[in-house]
Input
Amino acid sequence: MAAGALQSVALIGVGLIGGSWVLALREAGLIGGTVTGCGRSPENLEVARQCGIIDHATTDPQRAVRGAELVVLAVPLGAVRGALEAIRDDLADDAIVTDVGSAKRCVVDDARLVLGDAAVRFVPGHPIAGNEKSGAAAAFPELFRNRRVILTPDADTDKAAAARVTALWESVGASVATMTAAHHDEVLAATSHLPHMLAYSLVDTLSRWSDRDEIFAYAAGGFRDFTRIAPSDPEMWRDICLANREALMEAMERYMADLQELREAVRTGDAERLEAVFSHAKATRDRFVAMLES
Amino acid sequence: MAAGALQSVALIGVGLIGGSWVLALREAGLIGGTVTGCGRSPENLEVARQCGIIDHATTDPQRAVRGAELVVLAVPLGAVRGALEAIRDDLADDAIVTDVGSAKRCVVDDARLVLGDAAVRFVPGHPIAGNEKSGAAAAFPELFRNRRVILTPDADTDKAAAARVTALWESVGASVATMTAAHHDEVLAATSHLPHMLAYSLVDTLSRWSDRDEIFAYAAGGFRDFTRIAPSDPEMWRDICLANREALMEAMERYMADLQELREAVRTGDAERLEAVFSHAKATRDRFVAMLES
Output
């Protein structure tokens, strides 16, 4: 067991992200005591216990957080405020609370509103990892290796709490960056939330086509790659849209303006413009891949 | 050597698609004689010769087709008419001509216009295969295994010619479907051309973002999957847009209307509508994957 290992952890929401983090922290020897998992589904909690993610299970968030040094909120964004309200009065005075939500301004607002002074020990976080699976059974400890985690503490956030959460993420192989919640939301709207909207919308468009079955029969690799993210959890994505509405709308509007321009180039048969857009995109994508591999 | 193996083949345009088909036909024992490759780049032709795709190389299409039983046009769509004009007077009387272009109405029109009566032995084709690579060096004989090929002969097309091209595709592991050129263009606009436009446009949008480098640094798996098709050959995609303009514009307009609706749901915070769209897309995508695997 590593020095300073956690004696008591509460995991509120036991799914792919929270479950994988706990498994990874266990592998790193950073959990010396017990993990209590709290969730809505007793079946999923039992899976989590059998997978070695949690030691105890409860459907009562108040019981889960009592005495916990670290409280991890890993619930859909729409459930964050309710979870904070449920645990507020039972948090230990020195408990560090963190989350893994894909939007951060809404979570910061919820924490300020609900936790009041105790919000200084709330460290908002977002690991840029995951796949289209969900639930405790999908959790695995390598999920965060070589992935990025964004933390969005502000001037009021307790420095020791932020440092502790940073260290916990780094111990499982992630690299941690810090930025404002507003900037996080803009960056993620562009790089993750927008692409998901486009993929969902494409599947939607094609499913309304008159020859739907034939359309899907001939769907080529482009369609398959493009829509790989469409099976992601609908409830989670509904919450992301609502939570990051402003930045997502801005990103969608920019995209729609660019797509409208491309459509104009198609309509007018502007060969030069079309080739310029495609060449520029190819060069940019190639640079991106080179950056990922370097 | 199989009975009825081809004694003389002309390959006009020696790239991934044409090169792979010839390699696959050779493996299947269906080429008993020589293949003459014709292209603009002597370097690429030399690569094709070294890879065993072609036996002879020329930059003169007239020389390439003389005496050929089968002429495969595998040039960008914008170069089809010019290639047909170049070979018209040197085609053998019984030569079968086929192509591999991603749009078919334009090719059919070109063939009628240029070949006149000889257009009855032109069998328009489109293998639904390929990747983001190009050039003879990228060719490999397994490219068409378990892939679909669409042929778009019309009432005038010589039945024996169409049957021969069908057999040649089936011999390399592809399954062949026949439909009208107009229907092909609509189906491909939806399933391939539209997704490519969306991916190109996304890379374009993000590359104009003020914090471009940071945007790409945080680009998540969704972005990577979504834009995997963006590095495809810009010249080829320019030609596809011009050749399939009508059907592509229709598909883009449908998509933009659906995306606009989704943006409205985001703007108004319509949780129910958002979850319905995402759930429907997930179910549709899951069905599509199940269909591919069955």
